[in-house]
């Protein structure tokens, strides 16, 4: 087998509703000889994230849709195996956005060398120390303007972003943290390992009623990863002046038709609520501040995390679909 | 007829859907002799406003619901006919919130003496120079953070708030102002007298399509008085980073059941939108700044307005219902 053989997963067709394996194609190709300024990287971990589903559609968004017949782009981390660029040495760990392949080669400027800290696994750069953690931090601070003592509700709280939101909210002074998740085991994890004050299983139904019970005095901040019935429940539970950071709406990502929204939007007016959506690419200026704080929290043992790891690039699509179905706890990763 | 006979309109029952005359009761009563510190005021104009419909329901809101068997509260202006309070002279024009009656008597502290300016009718204190104008100003500035060059869309633009929003947006530097209204005559008024760049009749249907045509480059600011299909259309039309000031949702005020929301809330995330609801009572701190600017604009002839006046307190409920149906252009007032 050649040292230059790359296995890549391409988008073959735009999914209609739930993606199927037919929407993807595994392509093997021989990489060209390394050109000046390029590096070749053997990936160790690939990230599969909910937002990727949106990029598979051909709709206008802050980030352009994935191109058909090209490798699915996204966060990945690996090591340099060949370099023709100053400042990039063989063996360096690098973070990048080239996505779903085992071997990738490109302009060195598209890779970022990351320091390796004893006790901090490289994979954390793809979640608590990376975009996932930054998303949680920015949503709580810049978007939802979290205040000391606030009651915070996080939907889809056992996922990669959700577990970070609950813990960061607590570290930033939230008075009460509530989460929803899709199984009794995840609910137990939230109130145990992750220190949530209350959690409930949304598959038991009646999200409105369960949230009302968990937040008898209402909520001040809502960090939404789910949308749909969760947004509706939050709108009912909000205290006056409440703020929502809308980060994701996974409940609707695989709908084939447009789904009507909550029936209680009038509460936005009568309670003076603020709902703000965000995609993390527009808030990268907060990264240095976030990374400094998160490194301290990790070193002090104040941040727990989980990884659900799937082995083998050939299982990347399965890992993505399982993540969309909620099979993961914490961050879903593919180990190449 | 006694000088102390007051005709008052009370809430008799909480309306279910559209209010009917049976939900109100006209009560005549003899006022008590004037106590120390009180004034007696003969009203000249009563305000009928969309928000009053919400206060007829027994639901939680920033403002408490109207009490059954009491006079409907709201803005009114009149003149003092008897005074037992220092600083309040017979003949003074006073603004107050005692609502739907022809003669009202209460603690002088609940009335505000307003200066009379030649050429500025008293009734303006109930709209462009009052809460209505302040609502438009606060929504555009403090809530939607209007910027120079923004394209602004106002729903229900021919109403009292809407006509003020369009003109204030222009005066504050908006690049393009678009409005919707419920008749061809109102549309003509918007693009004529009120200087809107484009307007359409929402009763022609396809609000999404009509807005897209009026705003080919999208909208930056949405000032919503209507909700429902208008909010949905705006969410489709928003440019990245768009901001909505949600002021009213008259399309749903008389629904007997909860109505599902827009089917495109996901745009809030992908376009990084901000939706904020407000009720003017929480933003009265902007009143001095607003009144100074509006007085200048009025003096310079830069603000047009309309009043739809109904004569006779006995027609107040009819005026209120007609306003809810959109029979008014500009401010709907009852002349006592």
TrEMBL record, chains A, B:
Pfam families per record: ADH_N_2, ADH_zinc_N
CDD domains listed in its UniProt record: PGDH
Highest taxon, organism lineage: Bacteria
Entry keyword set: Oxidoreductase
Stretches assigned to the Enoyl reductase (ER) domain: 19-334
Protein name: NADP-dependent oxidoreductase
InterPro entries assigned: ADH-like_C, ADH_N_2, ER, GroES-like_sf, MDR_fam, NAD(P)-bd_dom_sf
Coiled-coil residue windows: none
């Amino acid at each position: 087998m050649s040292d230059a053989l790359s296995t890549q997963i391409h988008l073959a067709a735009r999914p209609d509703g739930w993606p199927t394996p037919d929407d993807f194609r595994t392509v093997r190709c021989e990489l060209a000889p390394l050109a000046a300024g390029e590096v070749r990287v053997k990936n160790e971990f690939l990230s599969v994230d909910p937002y990727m589903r949106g990029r598979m559609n051909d709709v206008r968004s802050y980030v352009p849709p994935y191109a058909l017949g090209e490798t699915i782009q996204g966060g990945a981390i690996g090591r340099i195996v060949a370099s023709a660029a100053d400042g990039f040495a063989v063996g360096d760990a690098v973070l990048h956005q080239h996505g779903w392949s085992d071997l990738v080669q490109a302009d060195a400027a598209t890779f970022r060398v990351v320091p390796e800290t004893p006790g901090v696994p490289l994979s954390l750069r793809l979640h608590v120390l990376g975009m996932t953690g930054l998303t949680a931090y920015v949503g709580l601070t810049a978007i939802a303007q979290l205040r000391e003592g606030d009651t915070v509700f996080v939907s889809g709280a056992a996922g990669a972003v959700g577990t970070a939101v609950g813990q960061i909210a607590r570290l930033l002074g939230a008075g009460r943290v509530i989460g929803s998740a899709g199984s009794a085991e995840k609910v137990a994890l939230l109130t145990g390992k992750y220190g949530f004050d209350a959690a409930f299983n949304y598959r038991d139904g009646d999200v409105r009623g369960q949230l009302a019970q968990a937040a008898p005095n209402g909520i001040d901040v809502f960090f939404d990863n789910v949308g749909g019935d969760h947004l509706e429940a939050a709108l009912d539970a909000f205290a006056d002046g409440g703020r929502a950071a809308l980060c994701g709406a996974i409940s609707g990502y695989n709908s084939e038709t447009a789904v009507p929204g909550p029936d209680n939007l009038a509460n936005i007016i009568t309670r003076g609520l603020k709902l703000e959506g965000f995609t993390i690419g527009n808030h990268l200026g907060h990264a240095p501040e976030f990374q400094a704080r998160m490194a301290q929290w990790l070193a002090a043992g104040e941040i727990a995390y989980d990884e659900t790891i799937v082995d083998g690039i050939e299982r990347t699509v399965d890992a993505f679909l399982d993540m969309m179905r909620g099979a993961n706890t914490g961050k879903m990763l593919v180990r190449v």
